[in-house]
Design goal:
Blueprint (H helix, E strand, L loop, with lengths): L3 E4 L5 E5 L8 E5 L2 E8 L3 E5 L3 E2 L4 E4 L5 E3 L2 E5 L15 E5 L8 E7 L3 E5 L13 E6 L1 E2 H4 L9 E3 L7 E3 L17 E4 L17 E5 L2 E4 L10 E2 L5 E5 L7 E9 L4 E6 L6 E6 L6 E2 L25 E4 L13 E5 L4 E3 L5 E2 L4 E2 L4 E6 L7 E6 L4
């Protein structure tokens, strides 16, 4: 069962409309919009990304050089925007769309009428200058991606006696209680801060819909506002008691800008990075710009001890819990090769739309972060 993608618009343009509390028009992004569907099988893990951006993003330009203090920076915007103080705090992020930091994103921690404050997260804005462009977008959350009141609770056979069962909600099946035997669908968010390989989600990163709200499986707190990283994946796990498949539907703006995806390394050994591409179409390995960006180390030979960075791809079309990679790719400097298929040349191998992938970075004595500049092939 393949993912299906439909793009509803084919143009890219900007509409001057009032944004949030603004009294003056601002430039709101109107990229192509579309939706994507991925089947989620019973008693199985479905590893997915979010290929679209939430609608309603707006563009801005730096009015002067950013000012950094400790691990925060202020970004003066060429306005007027007349934003309400702190209305974007921790619900939105800013992504540079030009200049040396093109594609990198930062969480907004505060704002005034025409200035944004961002968390640098160890990065530097020393090379950004007045006139660089940026985009302000809203984080997806558990609530916005999977509204609890729309969770699946039953299926309808349509047509009657056809054996085709349609869920009455989205991908998530609501649980009767937080007892393990009553959990129907769990969502696992990856452990983005941990070091090493074969990382598992801690209990506070595993969520269910119960009593019409999102909650971690280890307590009853409302977790609907949990933010989802724009370039990370998540896992939807249906239990064996889920009767029929559901559909993971996503809709929103097509990201027509570059994405600079942080790939972390470790001085102590290989490091896993969990990626969900913001691209709503199938991509071949050669279309990723992964090696060309300098973010992926090529391997000097196919011997296991010589393998450097590796790309793990997952097949959601077959049922599996604790899903393992269906293919593991490396690059020899000339071609992509599949180490799980006799090192066959795999330049045209496809990563389906909405798929989650994992990149295992080779040991780096400095523990540096490589940025993968993923450019849209459309």
């Amino acid at each position: 069962m393949r993912a299906q993608t439909i793009l509803a618009l084919v143009g890219i343009f900007a509409l001057p409309i009032a944004h949030l509390g603004a009294q003056e028009p601002v430039s709101v992004i109107s990229d192509p919009v579309g939706f994507n569907i991925v089947p989620c099988l019973p008693n199985s893990d479905t590893i997915v990304g979010v290929p679209f951006r939430q609608m309603g993003s707006f563009q801005a330009t730096l009015d002067s050089d950013p000012q950094a203090i400790d691990d925060e920076a202020s970004l003066p915007l060429r306005g007027p925007f007349n934003l309400t103080p702190d209305e974007l705090s921790f619900t939105h992020y800013v992504k540079f769309t030009s200049g040396p930091l093109d594609g990198r994103w930062f969480t907004i921690t505060g704002n005034s009428e025409n200035t944004l404050t961002i968390d640098l997260n160890g990065d530097s804005l020393s090379s950004t200058t007045e006139g660089d462009s940026l985009l302000v977008a809203k984080f997806w959350t558990l609530d916005s991606l999977f509204p609890p009141h729309q969770a699946t609770t039953a299926w309808t056979e349509s047509p009657e006696n056809s054996g085709n069962f349609i869920p009455n909600g989205h991908a998530i099946v609501a649980s009767a209680s937080s007892r393990p035997r009553d959990m129907m669908t769990r969502v696992f968010l990856p452990n983005l801060e941990a070091e090493g390989v074969n990382l598992v989600s801690p209990p506070e990163n595993i969520f269910i819909v119960v009593e019409n709200q999102w909650s971690p499986t280890n307590n009853s707190q409302n977790a609907g506002s949990t933010r989802l990283s724009p370039d990370s994946h998540l896992t939807i796990r249906h239990s064996s008691t889920v009767a029929h498949p559901t559909n993971y539907r996503t809709a929103g703006d097509v990201v027509s800008q570059s994405n600079a995806i942080a790939l972390h390394t470790s001085p102590n050994g290989p490091q896993d990075n969990f990626i969900g591409l913001q691209r709503p179409i199938d991509l071949s390995l050669n279309e990723l710009n992964l090696v060309e960006s300098g973010a992926f180390k090529v391997s000097p030979s196919s011997r296991p001890r010589d393998l450097r960075d590796r790309l793990f791809v997952y097949d959601n079309s077959t049922p599996a819990v604790n899903r393992i990679a269906s293919a593991i790719y490396f690059h020899d400097g000339q071609n992509w090769r599949n180490s799980t298929d006799n090192n066959s040349i795999s330049d045209s191998a496809i990563i389906p739309a909405s798929s989650g992938i994992m990149i295992r970075k080779f040991l780096d004595q400095e523990g540096t972060t490589d940025f993968w500049l993923n450019t849209p092939p459309f």
